[in-house]
Amino acid sequence: PVGLAWFSPDCKHFSKAKGAPLVDRKIRGLSWVILRWAMTVRPRVIMMENVEEIQTWGPLMEVWVQEHIETVPDPERKGETFDAFIAMLTTGVSADHPALEEACEFLQIDIDGPEAKRLIEGLGYVIEHRELVAADYGAPTTRKRFVLVGRCDGQPIVWPERTHAPRDSEEVKSGKLKPWRSAAEIIDWTQPGYSIFASKQ
Length: 201
Fold this sequence. Notes:
By secondary structure, this protein is of the alpha/beta class. It has helices at residues 25-28, 33-40, 80-89, 98-107, 114-121, 170-173, and strands at residues 4-7, 45-50, 60-65, 68-73, 126-133, 144-151, 164-165, 178-179. The strands form three sheets. Strands 1-2-6-5 form a four-stranded mixed β-sheet, with helices on one face. The radius of gyration is 21 Å and the shape is globular.
């Protein structure tokens, strides 16, 4: 039995910091692995962390760019695959949904077989997801992340209460919350360093 399974699928295909567009289907679809765990191991709690843009996960399309074909996300279908992914984990998805074929292809299961039928019927998890800022919980970084929690054990999903806020916020001024921490607090300034601009690489 597995009590909790944590997943952090490769996020560079969705991150706004990625630079040039990347469309490797095998990397874009790594979140499908969570379905395999849900089907075969059935952890009581599933958690997934990713960039917030994972929620735009959708089908790809081919376009002509400077006399060659490139594969890019379809702007008209943003979030379609993500919504189907959530549906497969929870209450199910229609048998003719295009994302079902993609999931089966990635997981190497028969689209007419019993495992695909389970995805169509839904795996019965209760899912909640939010965008959380690490600094709100005492971490010295303002990085925002998408966090998903799923349970199949009948217990409620409980999110942590915020403990920190920006220094100029009313919550901090009133003493309700602590101020965000700075990265400078955790750097050992006594350690010698050198400029990255002096590096030979």
